[in-house]
Amino acid sequence: MKALKNNAIFQAMFIGSLTGLAGVLVFIFILQLPTTEKEVAETIPTVQTTEEQQQVKQQYFALQHGVFSNFDSAAQFLGTYPTLNKAAVVKVDEQYFVWSRLDTTKVDAALALIPSGFYKSITIASSCPNNAELQLPITLKDTKMFTGQQTDTIDEQLVPTDWIGLASEVSKLSTNPNIIRLHMFLNYYERLDCLKVTF
Predict the structure, then answer these.
(1) 38 vs 173: CA distance, rounded Å
(2) Alpha-carbon torsion (117, 85, 193, 60), positive or negative
């Protein structure tokens, strides 16, 4: 009777051990299964990384003739000087600047214009997602990209979609590349929030 009781105890222990081992094996097998799309979607990342926004910057020199608190005052000033008939009003940080050209270097002869002006160093910066618009600060430096018949040879993937047509129209305003550059820049600056001017 005692031997039978001991035998039953050993059998129970053996079966319990086998059951426990089988349970562990099943648990390990379940852990090794690939996760479903739903489970992946529900997973919350513990570390989030964000890419730094790309930005392209270039320095220019704007020939400035005045700064005003509103557009009407700037436009009235322009109207009093026929020599500023190709100038532009550029709004930066709630101020309205009258610029007559946008140069890559200072040109002493340009300072003889009446009314007198001075060169203001500016930085044009683009953080646009579209690569052609991102490269605008650099593209504007190359006069071949917007003057004369050179526009016929431009790789259209390097410039915004309306660049060539715009360059053709603006070229009718002046043959001076620094005046053309100003108006090319202004066209995109007024339309693209990702194109900025800083001083």
Answers:
(1) 60
(2) negative
Location of structure tokens 């006069």 = 143
Average pLDDT over residues 4-18: 55
Pairing status of strand 195-198 against strand 118-126: antiparallel
Structural contact between residues 132 and 158, judged by C-beta atoms closer than 8 angstroms? yes
d(CA 89, CA 84): 11
* Gyration radius of the chain over CA positions: 35
pTM of the model: 0.72
| Predicted pLDDT at 147 | 81
Q: Residue 134: name the closest of 188, 61, 59 by CA.
A: 188
Query: By C-alpha distance, which of 160, 156, 163 is closest to 180?
Result: 163
As a whole number of Å, the end-to-end CA separation of the chain is 102
Secondary structure of residue 62 in the 3-state scheme: strand
Instruction: Supply the DSSP symbol for 173.
Output: T
Residue with tokens 């700064």: 67
Q: Is the pLDDT of residue 67 over 80?
A: yes
